[in-house]
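User: Hey, my collaborator sent me this sequence without any context and asked if I could get a structure. I don't really work with proteins. Can you help?
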Amino acid sequence: MTKEALIEFEGVIKEILPDSRFRVTLDNGYETMAYVAGRVKRNRIRIAMGDRVMLENQDRVKTGPIKKVLVANRGEIAVRVMRTCREMGIQTVAVYSDVDRDALHTRYATEAYHIGPPAPRESYLNMQKLIDVAKKSGADAIHPGYGFLSENAEFARACARAGITFVGPRPELLDMMGDKTAARALAQRINVPTLPGTENPITDRDEALRTAKSIGFPLIIKAAFGGGGRGMRVVQRAADLANLLDEAQAEAGRAFGNPAVFLEKYIPRAKHIEVQVLG
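Assistant: No problem. I've predicted the 3D structure and written it out in C-alpha cell form, which is a compact way to encode the shape of the chain:
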C-alpha cells in the first residue's frame, strides 16, 4: 500500500539549474534541491533567484509491513542485512556483478539478480538498474547497507518516486549529512566544535597543498560522500600529499561514485564516537 506524504518547507531560491531543478536555502538554514512542479511548467510561471517558495515533498511512501527487501550491496554487509530479514520473516533479493556471481550473499538471499560488470559504477552504484530489479522482483524496499549508495540523497529520492521504501534517512537529512563538508558546515552553524579542515571538497592539488599548510601536518584526507575507511589517507608530510590525494580520490570514486574528498587535522589515537542520525 502506498500513500502521499505531504511535508511543506519554505525558503529562498539560491540557484536555478538547467534540468528543471533549483537549489533552495530553507528558513531553518539548511539547503535542499527541488524540482519544478508540473503545474508550474504548464502555467508558465516564472521563477527567479531570490524568490520565496514553498516546497511540497509528495514522494510516495510505503505503509504497512515490508514483505521483500532488495539489498543493494555485496559480501558480508549484504549477508548481515539478509540474516536479520530472515529472522523477521522477510524475503530478500540479492544483486551481484560478474565477479560476485558465486558470492555468499547471492546464495543466502531468497533470489538473486545480475546487475552488470565488476566496476561499481556499472553495477552497485547504478541507481536505475537497482530500481529496475526491485520492481522486477516485487521488492517493497531497498536496503543500501553501508558504503555505495547508503548516503546518496538522489538514490533515496529515486526510490520514493518509484514507490519503493528506502531503508535509511529521509533525502533531506542525507542532503545535510551525506556530504561530510555540508555536515561540518552544519555543525559549525549550530556551534558544535569541529577540527580545522576544508569547507568544500578539494578538487585541485595546488589548492590542497595551500590548505594543508594552513591546517598543519599530520592531516587526514577523507571521502566527502562516504565512510567506512574508504577514500581515507593519513598524510604525515607535504611531500606525500599529492600521491595520497590521488589514491584517496580514486578509491572514493570507485566506492561511492564520487571522488570528492576533503582535508582535516589528524588526531592520532583519538577516541572514535559514532553519532547516528535518524529520520
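In plain terms: Residues 218 and 271 are 17 Å apart (CA to CA). You can pass these C-alpha cells on to your collaborator as they are.
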